[in-house]
Amino acid sequence: MSEMKLAVLGAAGRMGQTLARAIAATEGCVLAAGIEAKGSPAVGRDLGEVAGLGTLGIPITDDPLPVFAEVHGVLDFTTPKATVAFAGLAAQARIVDVIGTTGLSADDQAKIEAAARHAAIVKAGNMSLGVNLLAGLTERVARTLGPEFDIEILELHHRHKRDAPSGTALLLGQAAASGRNIALKDHSARARNGDVGPRREGDIGFAALRGGDVVGEHKVIFAGPGERIELAHIATDRGIFAQGAIRAALWARGQGPGLYSMHDVIGL
Length: 268
Hints:
Elements: E1 4-9, H1 14-24, E2 29-35, H2 47-51, H3 64-70, E3 73-76, H4 80-93, E4 96-99, H5 106-115, E5 120-123, H6 129-144, E6 150-157, H7 167-180, E7 188-189, E8 204-210, E9 216-224, E10 227-235, H8 239-252, E11 258-260, H9 262-266
Parallel strand pairs: 1-2, 1-3, 3-4, 4-5, 5-11, 6-8, 7-8
Antiparallel strand pairs: 6-9, 9-10
């Protein structure tokens, strides 16, 4: 099979630049294009120069149509509105779409699921191998321990992150809920302020911290009578998310249309 031609969406952002460098360093794929929003000062600039790779002769564009017609897949860590639109284009072009965007609404999710009827889409709140292994452990521990163990999820990210709880925290919350065989939406405590009364049994609590340049830290706490179990993951390099996204794209190239997760990619 020929090398997989990949386009980076949101190419001038921190994650976009990281993705571009990772693609360039990965065997089996080639950096083919970069897309930015209309009005971005990066439009027209060389993708390689923006990503610190030197001149590649690939100008960043704000017109996705010709790009989607030429590449085998796209990597998308942009914004919910843009991600939904790009998923629709991926469905039309029948190409792989790897989505790492967080903060998606239920309506956004429904539109992505519709697009997945025509394209192989891999969507995950976190693309790292370690985090997805953590999610698997979280589900197993939640299934093993009884309801006398309260579940709390703590996450810390850099000051620029806009959505809370993080997509990874929600991924872990969903894993815990699956282990307990409950619906996360009915057992989620995301805000505590003032006199909120005793903790409701069965809730999965979330706490979001923001500051500095933290790439990402997540902890799942199982607090029971007389003992506490803590599972944690600390990311120190944004490159782990890029490597996971590329692995997902290469895997998805051999799949039929559908909505997949990183659990599918790594065989959990």
